[in-house]
TrEMBL record:
It comes from Hyphomicrobium album. This is Sugar 3,4-ketoisomerase QdtA cupin domain-containing protein. It comes from the Bacteria. Pfam families: FdtA. Signal peptide: none annotated. Residues 4-118 form the Sugar 3,4-ketoisomerase QdtA cupin domain. Gene3D superfamilies: Jelly Rolls. InterPro entries: QdtA_cupin_dom, RmlC-like_jellyroll, RmlC_Cupin_sf.
Length: 126
């Protein structure tokens, strides 16, 4: 796998599971949001100039297409303990399964000028 997925510490017992994000990311979190009620819809379709992101499917499954201009891969997130790192150079789209919720943690506040909407010209192939 070319794109890094962190395995977040999870503690489970008869009462349920608790997954910890504290100290796990290689950047400070400046923005947190989640996407839900997007059954079967595809979101994203951009990369960034500076912003780094982390994606967690906190409920259901999310298919994430990643392309860094050299390699491309589709990654399926389906455990709340899996956290996909998205670097600024990574063109990404994600499709949410029915009832899925994806948590997004970003290194910078929202700034439309940070977005690059054009995909890489020559799509790579693995």
């Amino acid at each position: 796998m070319h794109f890094p997925i962190l395995s977040l510490p999870t503690f489970a017992d008869a009462r349920g599971a608790l997954t910890v994000l504290e100290g796990a990311l290689p950047f400070a979190i400046a923005r947190i949001y989640w996407i839900h009620a997007a059954d079967g819809q595809t979101r994203g379709g951009h990369r960034h100039k500076e912003t780094r992101q982390a994606l967690v499917a906190v409920h259901g499954s999310v298919s994430v297409y990643m392309n860094d201009g050299v390699r491309e891969e589709t990654i399926k997130l389906q455990r709340p303990s899996d956290c996909l790192l998205v670097e600024p150079k990574d063109w990404h789209t994600f499709t949410l399964a029915d009832d899925a919720v994806v948590l997004v943690l970003a290194s910078h506040p929202y700034d439309r000028a940070d977005y690059i909407d054009e995909p890489y010209v020559d799509a790579p192939h693995d």
